[in-house]
Design a protein that fits this description.
The protein is mainly β. Helix content is about 10%, strand content about 35%.
Length: about 180
């Protein structure tokens, strides 16, 4: 009887663990292939994390950013992987290897920069969440964002203003690095 109870308990525990593990691998919880940890520029307390995961159809970008004033904030990948200057300008301009015009993140590749991710929208609690699959951003090749910088701006990206969307001052910066999985 003890052996039967032990086997039953073990199988129940193993089944529960499998379901718990499966629940932890929802699409939003997939292990990232690259990550940028955002830190505020001078005078800014904005911080957060941006994850990049290869998926069918492109790269899934998931961002959680905290300490933003409520409203929309330009969200871009910039050319240089350098967040060393106090104002974030060492990150350079938007990542744009093809020399295309600035545009919305859902625009055709010929009508946007690779780095055009659109806007984050912060709620009244100063938090912003972003989750979309981007078909232009890549983690290897010409459009690779690895080693580049993510920038969160003070203002809204107008999406059509040239050359950069007129989103204003840089509030946070983080360099995109590859995540090594064991």
């Amino acid at each position: 009887m003890k052996r039967f109870l032990l086997v039953t308990f073990s199988l129940t525990f193993a089944t529960a663990m499998l379901f718990a593990c499966a629940a932890g691998t929802r699409a939003g919880d997939a292990r990232a292939d690259a990550v940028a940890n955002l830190s505020g520029t001078a005078g800014s307390a904005v911080h957060g994390r941006v994850q990049f995961t290869r998926v069918d159809g492109g790269v899934r970008i998931v961002a959680d950013v905290y300490g933003l004033p409520p409203g929309k904030h330009g969200f871009h990948i910039h050319t240089n992987g350098d967040c060393g200057s106090p104002d974030g300008k060492s990150a350079g301009g938007h990542f744009n290897p093809a020399g295309t015009p600035h545009g919305a993140p859902d625009a055709d590749a010929s009508k946007r920069h690779v780095g055009d991710l659109g806007n984050l929208e912060a709620d009244e609690a100063t938090n912003a969440h972003y989750d979309r699959v981007d078909k232009v951003v890549a983690l290897s090749g010409e459009n690779s964002v690895v080693g580049r910088a993510v920038i969160v701006h003070a203002g809204e990206d107008a999406l059509s203003s040239q050359p950069t969307g007129a989103a204003g001052r840089r509030l946070a910066c983080g360099v995109i690095g590859v995540v090594e999985h064991p």
